[in-house]
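Course assignment 3, question 2. Fill in each field.
Student: A.L.
Task: Predict the tertiary structure for the chain below.
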Amino acid sequence: QVQLVESGGGLVHTGGSLTLSCEASEEIFPTLTWERHGPGQGRERVATRRPGGTKNYGDSVKARSTISVGADKKTLYLQMNKLEPGGTAVYYCKVHVFPGLDYWGKGIQVTVAS
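Answer field:
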């Protein structure tokens, strides 16, 4: 079982930047995703990195965010720039091993103040 722990969240002002980290208990190779759950909103996919390196971003963060994996192959990052109040949410990292098997972190709060 893969253990995931997010860090790097907190309070940032509109227009600011933040980098979230997700440290895994072992090397991670499957499809990796950051999702967020904002107040009064459903869960939204923010960014996905597939095993071959392909990256996809949600429309709300496209061109302002970057998903990457550290050289240790155990840390997933999400760099977010030009943050907007709509970015206030709990952010989760997810490792998708195969259909029916996903591992989630417990989430970390990001608050964007206007």
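Instructor remarks: The CA atoms of residues 2 and 47 lie 20 Å apart. The longest strand covers residues 89-98.
Grade: pending
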